[in-house]
Design brief:
Helix content: 25-40%
Strand content: 25-35%
Strand order of the largest sheet: 3-4-8-7
Largest sheet: 4 strands, antiparallel
Shape: globular
Number of strands: 8
Low-confidence stretches: 1-18
Number of domains: 1
C-alpha cells in the first residue's frame, strides 16, 4: 500500500511539473535547442539571456550585470508576446547590390508581477533566466494571449 501511495504521489508531481520551461543551459553553454516562451494553463513562461561584458574584471561584475541583462531580455520577450512587436526595416540598394540592411524592433507595454523562477550562469559569465507571469493576472487585465494549439 505504501509503495502504491508513493508511486501516485511521484507520478502526480511529475505530471504537475511537466509543463514548465526546462533549462537552456547544458554543460555550461547554451543548449542546442530550447523554447523561449511557453504558455500553459497557469502561466506565461519566458526566458531571457544576458551576455557578460568581457571588460569587467571580476566574475561578480560579469554575473551581476549579465543577470540584469537576462531579466531585461525576459521582460522584452513577455512584452512582445502580450503587446506585439513594432518592426521597421531598411534596405539600401546601390547599383543593384545591397549595401546595408537594418531591422529595428521595439515593444512597449506595462508588465507587473513577473516572477523570477530560475537563474543559471554560463561558463563565460553569461546568464539565462526563466520568469513567469500568472494567467489569472493576465485574464484580470485583459492581456491573456490565446494558447497555441
Amino acid at each position: 500500500m505504501k509503495k502504491t501511495l508513493a508511486f501516485l504521489i511521484c507520478s502526480t508531481l511529475f505530471f504537475a511539473c511537466g509543463k514548465t520551461m526546462k533549462s537552456a543551459v547544458k554543460e555550461g553553454k547554451i543548449a542546442p535547442s530550447f523554447n523561449d516562451t511557453l504558455l500553459d494553463k497557469d502561466y506565461l513562461w519566458v526566458r531571457g539571456f544576458g551576455a557578460a561584458n568581457p571588460n569587467h574584471q571580476t566574475d561578480s561584475q560579469r554575473r551581476i550585470l549579465s543577470r540584469e541583462a537576462a531579466i531585461a531580455h525576459a521582460y522584452q520577450r513577455a512584452t512582445e508576446v502580450l503587446y506585439g512587436t513594432n518592426l521597421e526595416s531598411h534596405v539600401q540598394i546601390v547599383d543593384a547590390v545591397s549595401t546595408g540592411s537594418t531591422i529595428d524592433t521595439s515593444a512597449t507595454g506595462l508588465l507587473k508581477r513577473m516572477e523570477l523562477i530560475q537563474t543559471e550562469y554560463l561558463d563565460d559569465g553569461g546568464c539565462a533566466v526563466i520568469m513567469r507571469l500568472s494567467r489569472n493576472y493576465l485574464q484580470e487585465t485583459g492581456l491573456d494571449p490565446k494558447e497555441n494549439k
